[in-house]
Amino acid sequence: MNLALWFSIDRSGGPVRQAMWEVEALARSPLDGEQAPDHAFTALYGDVLGAEPDVGEVRDYFEDQSRREEFVLEHVMTQRMLSLNDRLDARVFPSGVYVGLRAMGPDGAPMVYVTRHLAHFMFFPRHAYILVVPEQGEATVFSASVNNKLDEDAEHPNHLRATLQAYDVEAYDFPSSGQAVHLMTRISDEVATDALARLETAAQRLAEAEVTYGVLAPNSNTVIGCLLEDAGVMTRAERSGALLAVRAPGLGADCV
Question: What angle is formed at CA 224 by the lines to CA 182 and CA 152, rounded to 5 degrees?
Answer without folding.
Answer: 80
